[in-house]
Amino acid sequence: MLHLERTIYCKRDGFIYRVDSITPFEKADYIWVHLALVCGWDYLNEDTEVQGWVAPENFVKDVQTEIISQNFVLESLYDALEFNDFEIVENTKAFEKFLK
């Protein structure tokens, strides 16, 4: 497992993920990038139409984690995330209560 020097957050389809870990791939030029769900945009209460950021436990297991591959010789981590339709999140203030 490789170490990241800073925490990276990204979003896709109303979900905020944290780059959780990076592990080597069988091929020397590739690594697996593991993303963990931090929170998602959904209804805060089933009885109202008010939406906001909710905890990961409120979502099905299929969205709890994501794994992408990255060719670290040809692309940066940011390029790999963008290629997989993730957008880097710089401002975490809106969902900071979910950051541990």
Q: Could you explain the architecture of this structure?
A:
- By secondary structure, this protein is mainly beta.
- The protein has one domain (9-87).
- The protein contains 1 helix and 6 strands, in the order βββββαβ.
- Strands 1, 2, 3, 4, 5 and 6 form a 6-stranded antiparallel sheet that branches.
- The chain is elongated and about 50 Å long.
> Structural class of the helices, strands and pairings?
mainly beta
Would you identify the regions where 5 or more consecutive residues have pLDDT less than 50?
A: none
The biggest sheet, with number of strands, parallel, antiparallel or mixed sense and barrel status, is: 6 strands, antiparallel
Estimated helix fraction: under 10%
Topology order in helix (H) and strand (E) letters: EEEEEHE
Distance between the termini: 21 Å
Q: Please state the CA-atom Rg, rounded to the nearest Å.
A: 15 Å
Number of helices: 1
Strand content: 35-45%
Q: How many domain units?
A: 1
Cα shape: elongated
Return the average pLDDT rounded to an integer.
89
**How many β-strand runs?**
6
